[in-house]
Amino acid sequence: MTSPKAPASKASGKPDRPFPTLLLELEARATWDGHVCGVDEAGRGPWAGPVSAAAVILNPDDLPKGIDDSKALTEKRRAVLEIDIKARALAWGVGFASVEEIDQLNILHATGLAMRRAVEALAHPPVHALVDGNYRFPLPCAVTPVVKGDSRSLSIAAASILAKTARDRLMIEMDATYPGYGFASHKGYNAPLHQKALQTLGPCPEHRRSWAPIRALLEAA
User: Fold this and answer.
1) Is residue 12 packed enough to be buried (19+ CB in 10 Å), middle (13-18) or exposed (0-12)?
2) How many whole angstroms separate alpha carbon 137 and alpha carbon 149?
3) Residue 74's CB: how many other CB atoms inside 10 A?
4) Residue 180: left if φ>0, alpha if ψ -120 to 50, beta else—which one?
């Protein structure tokens, strides 16, 4: 199977940026006898809400078209690709770590917990995981960290889409439970609306108490 090629820039004849392919997955499968999954997270930086992670084992003979780093896609395009990835992938899983777990463990270890839950949710246990970033999270299989993995690996890019859409959906639901904070629009990240709501309403149960801005508000109360 030929890996997708990046489009060339009209001015330079070179790719504008790297696009994900299956090269890393094929290299891993040549070494490891079994399924290789891509893993990524969403929501490490927000002031509120859980951190999510997804794991995806793609079918190299039935790849959805247009998979890319979730940050490079529109919300509408992510929604379409989420359905396509779930329909065509050999297996996919999503996991979360709660605000309480983030505050108890710290965001790095909570992210690893969400990733472990996502990998454990896969219908086919992988023997190897390609994980976005430079940290080797302890997962129930061998792990290869991949810096900028969501722009290099199709499996990681697919996981980035599922992690993002799952968390966004949860934050929209949270907006109905805790109105006034604007969770549906900013998804818990720092934003003027969020700052103003915190000054007026104070933190809600879904705010990360260990985050400096939230901790400062609680100490000032």
Assistant:
1) exposed
2) 14
3) 8
4) left
Question: Tokens 């996981």 — which residue?
Answer: 159
Longest dimension (CA), the chain: 61
Cα–Cα distance for residue pair 49/29, rounded to 1 Å: 36
Asked if residues 116 and 51 have their Cβ atoms less than 8 Å apart, the reply is no
Is 103 flagged in the annotation as binding? no
132 is in an annotated binding site: yes
41 annotated ligand-binding residue: yes
In angstroms, rounded to a whole number, what is the distance separating the alpha carbons of residues 76 and 66? 13
Q: What is the per-residue pLDDT across 47-95, written as a single tens digit (0 to 9) for each?
A: 999 999 999 999 999 999 999 999 999 999 999 999 999 999 999 999 9
What whole-number distance in Å separates Cα of residue 174 and Cα of residue 181? 10
